[in-house]
Request: fold
Amino acid sequence: MIEKENVVEILKEVIYFPKGDNIISLKMVDNLHVKDKNIRFDLIFERKDDPKNDIVVEAARKALADVFGDDVNVDIEIAEQETALSKVKHIIAVVSGKGGVGKSTVAANLAVALSRANQRVGLIDADIYGPSVPMMFGTENERPGCVEHNGKSVILPIEKYGIKLLSIGYFVDANRPLIWRGPMATSALNQLMNDAYWGELDFLVVDMPPGTGDIQLTLAQSFKVSGAVIVTTPQKVAFADVRRAVMMFNDEALQIPMYGLIENMAYFVPSDRPEKKYYIFGKETGQQFADELHLPLLGQIPIEERIAECGDNGTPLALDATSPVTKAFDAVAMTIIGKCGQ
Ligand SMILES: Nc1ncnc2c1ncn2[C@@H]1O[C@H](COP(=O)(O)OP(=O)(O)OP(=O)(O)O)[C@@H](O)[C@H]1O
Ligand SMILES: [Mg+2]
Reply:
Protein backbone atom coordinates (compact mmCIF):
# COMPACT_ATOMS: atom_id res chain seq x y z
CA MET A 1 0.00 0.00 0.00
CA ILE A 2 1.55 3.31 -1.07
CA GLU A 3 1.07 6.18 1.39
CA LYS A 4 0.98 9.85 0.43
CA GLU A 5 3.59 10.61 3.11
CA ASN A 6 6.04 8.14 1.50
CA VAL A 7 5.56 9.76 -1.88
CA VAL A 8 6.33 13.16 -0.37
CA GLU A 9 9.47 11.79 1.31
CA ILE A 10 10.71 10.31 -1.98
CA LEU A 11 9.99 13.52 -3.92
CA LYS A 12 12.13 15.42 -1.40
CA GLU A 13 15.07 13.66 -3.08
CA VAL A 14 14.30 15.32 -6.41
CA ILE A 15 16.28 18.54 -6.79
CA TYR A 16 15.31 21.44 -9.01
CA PHE A 17 18.81 22.59 -9.92
CA PRO A 18 18.04 26.15 -11.11
CA LYS A 19 16.93 26.91 -7.52
CA GLY A 20 19.20 24.46 -5.71
CA ASP A 21 16.49 22.87 -3.56
CA ASN A 22 14.07 19.94 -3.70
CA ILE A 23 10.69 20.11 -5.39
CA ILE A 24 8.74 19.68 -2.12
CA SER A 25 10.53 22.50 -0.29
CA LEU A 26 10.10 24.70 -3.36
CA LYS A 27 6.32 23.96 -3.26
CA MET A 28 6.44 22.71 -6.84
CA VAL A 29 4.21 19.69 -6.11
CA ASP A 30 0.47 20.25 -5.96
CA ASN A 31 -2.75 18.18 -6.08
CA LEU A 32 -1.04 14.97 -5.02
CA HIS A 33 -3.37 11.96 -5.13
CA VAL A 34 -2.42 8.37 -4.30
CA LYS A 35 -4.71 5.41 -4.92
CA ASP A 36 -3.48 1.80 -4.92
CA LYS A 37 -0.60 1.82 -7.38
CA ASN A 38 -1.61 5.11 -8.98
CA ILE A 39 0.19 8.33 -8.11
CA ARG A 40 -0.72 11.65 -9.72
CA PHE A 41 0.32 15.24 -9.08
CA ASP A 42 1.01 18.59 -10.73
CA LEU A 43 4.55 19.89 -11.02
CA ILE A 44 4.54 23.68 -11.05
CA PHE A 45 7.16 25.55 -13.06
CA GLU A 46 7.68 29.24 -13.76
CA ARG A 47 7.33 28.56 -17.47
CA LYS A 48 5.39 25.67 -18.89
CA ASP A 49 7.39 25.57 -22.12
CA ASP A 50 10.87 25.38 -20.54
CA PRO A 51 12.57 22.29 -22.03
CA LYS A 52 14.41 21.72 -18.73
CA ASN A 53 11.08 20.82 -17.07
CA ASP A 54 11.19 17.32 -18.60
CA ILE A 55 14.41 16.52 -16.75
CA VAL A 56 12.66 17.13 -13.42
CA VAL A 57 9.59 15.15 -14.45
CA GLU A 58 11.77 12.19 -15.42
CA ALA A 59 13.80 12.45 -12.19
CA ALA A 60 10.56 12.36 -10.16
CA ARG A 61 9.28 9.36 -12.14
CA LYS A 62 12.54 7.50 -11.64
CA ALA A 63 12.73 8.24 -7.92
CA LEU A 64 9.21 6.81 -7.44
CA ALA A 65 9.85 3.75 -9.66
CA ASP A 66 13.11 3.01 -7.82
CA VAL A 67 11.20 2.64 -4.56
CA PHE A 68 7.76 1.36 -5.60
CA GLY A 69 8.77 -0.68 -8.63
CA ASP A 70 8.15 -0.28 -12.35
CA ASP A 71 4.50 -1.33 -12.19
CA VAL A 72 3.53 1.83 -10.29
CA ASN A 73 1.53 4.20 -12.44
CA VAL A 74 2.83 7.80 -12.19
CA ASP A 75 0.86 10.59 -13.82
CA ILE A 76 2.58 13.99 -13.68
CA GLU A 77 1.04 17.12 -15.16
CA ILE A 78 3.20 20.19 -15.81
CA ALA A 79 1.51 23.37 -14.56
CA GLU A 80 2.58 26.99 -14.69
CA GLN A 81 3.06 29.09 -11.58
CA GLU A 82 0.56 31.91 -11.35
CA THR A 83 2.29 35.26 -11.80
CA ALA A 84 1.16 38.84 -12.27
CA LEU A 85 1.26 38.19 -16.01
CA SER A 86 -0.23 34.67 -16.12
CA LYS A 87 -3.55 35.98 -17.36
CA VAL A 88 -2.06 38.45 -19.80
CA LYS A 89 -2.44 36.86 -23.21
CA HIS A 90 -0.12 39.06 -25.29
CA ILE A 91 2.67 41.50 -24.50
CA ILE A 92 3.25 43.89 -27.40
CA ALA A 93 6.34 46.12 -27.38
CA VAL A 94 6.32 49.47 -29.17
CA VAL A 95 9.94 50.15 -30.06
CA SER A 96 12.16 52.38 -32.17
CA GLY A 97 15.84 52.88 -32.71
CA LYS A 98 15.57 56.63 -32.48
CA GLY A 99 14.18 58.95 -29.82
CA GLY A 100 11.26 61.27 -30.41
CA VAL A 101 9.74 59.44 -33.40
CA GLY A 102 6.39 58.94 -31.66
CA LYS A 103 6.61 55.62 -29.77
CA SER A 104 4.64 56.91 -26.80
CA THR A 105 2.06 58.50 -29.08
CA VAL A 106 1.70 55.24 -31.01
CA ALA A 107 1.64 53.11 -27.85
CA ALA A 108 -1.10 55.26 -26.25
CA ASN A 109 -3.27 55.40 -29.37
CA LEU A 110 -2.73 51.71 -30.15
CA ALA A 111 -3.82 50.82 -26.61
CA VAL A 112 -6.98 52.92 -27.12
CA ALA A 113 -7.62 51.35 -30.56
CA LEU A 114 -7.26 47.82 -29.13
CA SER A 115 -9.67 48.74 -26.37
CA ARG A 116 -12.13 50.16 -28.94
CA ALA A 117 -11.95 46.71 -30.57
CA ASN A 118 -13.30 45.20 -27.31
CA GLN A 119 -9.96 43.90 -26.08
CA ARG A 120 -8.94 44.10 -22.43
CA VAL A 121 -5.88 46.33 -22.49
CA GLY A 122 -3.06 47.46 -20.24
CA LEU A 123 -0.33 49.98 -21.06
CA ILE A 124 2.98 49.98 -19.28
CA ASP A 125 5.49 52.77 -19.56
CA ALA A 126 8.91 51.14 -19.78
CA ASP A 127 10.55 54.50 -20.37
CA ILE A 128 11.89 54.71 -16.85
CA TYR A 129 13.99 57.83 -17.52
CA GLY A 130 11.36 59.77 -19.45
CA PRO A 131 7.87 58.50 -18.60
CA SER A 132 5.03 59.89 -20.73
CA VAL A 133 2.00 57.70 -19.98
CA PRO A 134 0.74 59.76 -16.97
CA MET A 135 0.52 62.94 -19.06
CA MET A 136 -0.85 61.28 -22.20
CA PHE A 137 -3.75 59.92 -20.13
CA GLY A 138 -4.24 62.99 -17.91
CA THR A 139 -3.35 61.02 -14.80
CA GLU A 140 -0.29 62.95 -13.55
CA ASN A 141 -1.77 63.51 -10.13
CA GLU A 142 -3.00 59.99 -9.52
CA ARG A 143 -1.17 57.51 -7.33
CA PRO A 144 -1.67 53.74 -7.69
CA GLY A 145 -2.99 51.91 -4.64
CA CYS A 146 -2.06 48.49 -3.27
CA VAL A 147 -4.06 45.25 -3.07
CA GLU A 148 -3.45 41.86 -1.52
CA HIS A 149 -3.16 39.11 -4.11
CA ASN A 150 -2.06 35.54 -3.39
CA GLY A 151 -0.73 36.64 -0.02
CA LYS A 152 1.37 39.40 -1.56
CA SER A 153 0.87 43.15 -1.57
CA VAL A 154 0.83 44.32 -5.20
CA ILE A 155 0.37 47.62 -7.07
CA LEU A 156 -3.07 48.35 -8.47
CA PRO A 157 -2.69 50.01 -11.91
CA ILE A 158 -4.48 53.31 -12.60
CA GLU A 159 -7.49 52.88 -14.87
CA LYS A 160 -8.46 55.44 -17.53
CA TYR A 161 -10.70 55.04 -20.58
CA GLY A 162 -10.95 51.34 -19.61
CA ILE A 163 -7.17 50.85 -19.92
CA LYS A 164 -4.94 49.76 -17.03
CA LEU A 165 -1.92 52.03 -16.77
CA LEU A 166 1.38 51.85 -14.94
CA SER A 167 4.40 54.09 -15.14
CA ILE A 168 7.31 54.99 -12.92
CA GLY A 169 5.93 58.53 -13.35
CA TYR A 170 3.20 57.73 -10.81
CA PHE A 171 5.80 57.17 -8.12
CA VAL A 172 8.21 60.04 -8.62
CA ASP A 173 8.09 63.82 -8.76
CA ALA A 174 7.53 64.72 -12.42
CA ASN A 175 9.81 67.75 -12.20
CA ARG A 176 12.87 65.91 -10.96
CA PRO A 177 15.10 64.03 -13.37
CA LEU A 178 15.52 60.30 -12.73
CA ILE A 179 19.22 59.75 -12.29
CA TRP A 180 19.42 56.01 -11.97
CA ARG A 181 21.97 53.42 -12.83
CA GLY A 182 21.00 50.78 -15.39
CA PRO A 183 20.25 47.99 -12.86
CA MET A 184 17.88 50.28 -10.93
CA ALA A 185 15.98 51.08 -14.10
CA THR A 186 15.64 47.42 -15.08
CA SER A 187 14.53 46.48 -11.59
CA ALA A 188 11.90 49.25 -11.74
CA LEU A 189 10.57 47.74 -14.98
CA ASN A 190 10.51 44.27 -13.42
CA GLN A 191 8.49 45.59 -10.51
CA LEU A 192 5.98 47.40 -12.72
CA MET A 193 5.48 44.18 -14.67
CA ASN A 194 5.62 41.56 -11.90
CA ASP A 195 4.45 43.28 -8.73
CA ALA A 196 1.22 44.64 -10.12
CA TYR A 197 -2.30 43.32 -10.29
CA TRP A 198 -2.86 43.16 -14.07
CA GLY A 199 -5.63 40.58 -13.89
CA GLU A 200 -7.04 39.27 -17.16
CA LEU A 201 -5.82 41.18 -20.20
CA ASP A 202 -5.83 40.42 -23.90
CA PHE A 203 -2.99 42.87 -24.55
CA LEU A 204 -0.35 44.57 -22.46
CA VAL A 205 1.19 47.28 -24.64
CA VAL A 206 4.71 48.33 -23.62
CA ASP A 207 5.90 51.85 -24.43
CA MET A 208 9.65 51.38 -24.72
CA PRO A 209 12.45 53.92 -24.35
CA PRO A 210 14.44 54.64 -27.52
CA GLY A 211 17.40 52.54 -28.56
CA THR A 212 18.79 49.11 -27.88
CA GLY A 213 19.88 49.11 -24.24
CA ASP A 214 19.30 47.42 -20.87
CA ILE A 215 15.54 47.92 -20.78
CA GLN A 216 15.10 46.31 -24.19
CA LEU A 217 17.25 43.37 -23.09
CA THR A 218 15.36 42.96 -19.82
CA LEU A 219 11.99 43.00 -21.52
CA ALA A 220 13.07 40.50 -24.15
CA GLN A 221 14.81 38.11 -21.78
CA SER A 222 12.54 38.20 -18.74
CA PHE A 223 9.11 38.34 -20.36
CA LYS A 224 7.34 36.45 -23.05
CA VAL A 225 6.81 39.19 -25.63
CA SER A 226 4.38 38.17 -28.39
CA GLY A 227 5.68 40.73 -30.84
CA ALA A 228 7.05 44.20 -31.45
CA VAL A 229 5.94 47.07 -33.65
CA ILE A 230 8.66 49.45 -34.78
CA VAL A 231 7.91 53.13 -35.05
CA THR A 232 9.84 55.26 -37.49
CA THR A 233 9.54 58.58 -39.23
CA PRO A 234 10.10 58.60 -42.98
CA GLN A 235 13.46 60.38 -42.78
CA LYS A 236 16.47 58.55 -44.16
CA VAL A 237 18.46 59.43 -41.01
CA ALA A 238 16.01 57.34 -38.97
CA PHE A 239 16.60 54.23 -41.03
CA ALA A 240 20.02 53.23 -39.65
CA ASP A 241 18.53 53.25 -36.15
CA VAL A 242 15.49 51.26 -37.24
CA ARG A 243 17.73 48.65 -38.82
CA ARG A 244 19.75 48.38 -35.59
CA ALA A 245 16.59 47.89 -33.53
CA VAL A 246 15.31 45.21 -35.92
CA MET A 247 18.66 43.41 -35.75
CA MET A 248 18.58 43.47 -31.95
CA PHE A 249 15.11 42.02 -31.65
CA ASN A 250 15.82 39.45 -34.37
CA ASP A 251 18.94 38.31 -32.52
CA GLU A 252 18.96 34.63 -31.68
CA ALA A 253 19.22 35.32 -27.97
CA LEU A 254 16.09 37.52 -27.95
CA GLN A 255 13.98 36.44 -30.92
CA ILE A 256 11.00 38.70 -30.60
CA PRO A 257 8.73 38.46 -33.63
CA MET A 258 8.44 41.73 -35.53
CA TYR A 259 4.88 42.54 -36.47
CA GLY A 260 5.97 45.37 -38.74
CA LEU A 261 6.68 49.03 -39.14
CA ILE A 262 4.50 52.01 -38.31
CA GLU A 263 5.40 55.10 -40.27
CA ASN A 264 4.64 58.08 -38.05
CA MET A 265 4.50 61.63 -39.41
CA ALA A 266 4.11 60.04 -42.84
CA TYR A 267 2.34 63.01 -44.45
CA PHE A 268 0.74 66.33 -43.61
CA VAL A 269 -2.91 67.28 -44.14
CA PRO A 270 -3.62 71.03 -43.92
CA SER A 271 -6.74 71.70 -41.87
CA ASP A 272 -8.18 74.05 -44.54
CA ARG A 273 -7.66 71.48 -47.31
CA PRO A 274 -8.41 68.08 -45.76
CA GLU A 275 -8.42 66.39 -49.18
CA LYS A 276 -4.69 67.16 -49.63
CA LYS A 277 -1.83 64.98 -48.40
CA TYR A 278 1.67 66.42 -48.45
CA TYR A 279 4.39 63.76 -48.26
CA ILE A 280 7.10 66.02 -46.87
CA PHE A 281 9.71 63.29 -46.56
CA GLY A 282 8.75 61.32 -49.67
CA LYS A 283 5.70 59.22 -50.37
CA GLU A 284 7.27 55.78 -50.61
CA THR A 285 9.84 56.11 -47.82
CA GLY A 286 7.97 54.06 -45.19
CA GLN A 287 7.21 51.31 -47.69
CA GLN A 288 10.85 51.29 -48.83
CA PHE A 289 12.05 50.92 -45.21
CA ALA A 290 9.60 48.08 -44.68
CA ASP A 291 10.61 46.33 -47.92
CA GLU A 292 14.30 46.56 -47.11
CA LEU A 293 13.69 44.98 -43.72
CA HIS A 294 11.25 42.40 -45.16
CA LEU A 295 8.56 43.62 -42.78
CA PRO A 296 4.99 44.68 -43.45
CA LEU A 297 4.09 48.37 -43.23
CA LEU A 298 1.33 48.25 -40.62
CA GLY A 299 0.17 51.83 -40.89
CA GLN A 300 0.89 55.41 -41.86
CA ILE A 301 0.06 58.08 -39.31
CA PRO A 302 -0.13 61.69 -40.54
CA ILE A 303 1.46 64.70 -38.87
CA GLU A 304 -1.49 66.29 -37.11
CA GLU A 305 -1.56 69.11 -34.66
CA ARG A 306 -4.35 67.37 -32.78
CA ILE A 307 -2.20 64.27 -32.11
CA ALA A 308 0.27 66.40 -30.17
CA GLU A 309 -2.49 68.46 -28.49
CA CYS A 310 -4.40 65.37 -27.40
CA GLY A 311 -1.19 63.81 -26.10
CA ASP A 312 -0.55 66.90 -24.00
CA ASN A 313 -4.07 67.20 -22.62
CA GLY A 314 -4.54 63.55 -21.69
CA THR A 315 -7.08 62.42 -24.29
CA PRO A 316 -5.42 60.23 -26.96
CA LEU A 317 -6.80 61.18 -30.38
CA ALA A 318 -7.84 57.57 -31.09
CA LEU A 319 -10.71 58.14 -28.62
CA ASP A 320 -12.31 60.38 -31.28
CA ALA A 321 -14.09 57.99 -33.64
CA THR A 322 -14.39 60.62 -36.39
CA SER A 323 -10.67 61.31 -36.82
CA PRO A 324 -8.81 59.76 -39.80
CA VAL A 325 -5.95 59.10 -37.37
CA THR A 326 -8.28 56.86 -35.39
CA LYS A 327 -9.02 54.84 -38.53
CA ALA A 328 -5.29 54.34 -39.10
CA PHE A 329 -4.80 53.10 -35.52
CA ASP A 330 -7.92 50.92 -35.73
CA ALA A 331 -6.41 49.22 -38.79
CA VAL A 332 -3.11 48.58 -36.96
CA ALA A 333 -5.04 47.21 -33.98
CA MET A 334 -7.02 44.84 -36.21
CA THR A 335 -3.80 43.56 -37.82
CA ILE A 336 -2.26 42.87 -34.41
CA ILE A 337 -5.42 41.18 -33.15
CA GLY A 338 -5.31 39.01 -36.29
CA LYS A 339 -1.63 38.13 -35.84
CA CYS A 340 -2.30 37.12 -32.23
CA GLY A 341 -5.31 35.03 -33.24
CA GLN A 342 -7.50 36.87 -30.76
N1 LIG B 1 1.84 62.10 -35.88
C1 LIG B 1 2.14 63.14 -35.11
N2 LIG B 1 1.68 64.38 -35.40
C2 LIG B 1 2.01 65.43 -34.62
N3 LIG B 1 2.76 65.36 -33.51
C3 LIG B 1 3.23 64.14 -33.16
C4 LIG B 1 2.94 62.98 -33.93
N4 LIG B 1 3.54 61.92 -33.32
C5 LIG B 1 4.17 62.41 -32.24
N5 LIG B 1 3.99 63.74 -32.15
C6 LIG B 1 4.54 64.62 -31.10
O1 LIG B 1 5.95 64.49 -31.13
C7 LIG B 1 6.51 64.50 -29.82
C8 LIG B 1 7.30 63.21 -29.58
O2 LIG B 1 6.40 62.09 -29.59
P1 LIG B 1 6.52 60.91 -28.56
O3 LIG B 1 6.73 61.41 -27.19
O4 LIG B 1 5.37 60.03 -28.81
O5 LIG B 1 7.86 60.26 -29.10
P2 LIG B 1 8.74 59.10 -28.44
O6 LIG B 1 9.31 58.31 -29.57
O7 LIG B 1 7.95 58.37 -27.43
O8 LIG B 1 9.88 59.94 -27.72
P3 LIG B 1 10.97 59.39 -26.67
O9 LIG B 1 12.01 58.71 -27.50
O10 LIG B 1 11.46 60.62 -26.01
O11 LIG B 1 10.27 58.44 -25.75
C9 LIG B 1 5.31 64.65 -28.88
O12 LIG B 1 5.19 66.00 -28.54
C10 LIG B 1 4.13 64.21 -29.71
O13 LIG B 1 2.93 64.81 -29.32
MG1 LIG C 1 8.36 57.98 -25.40
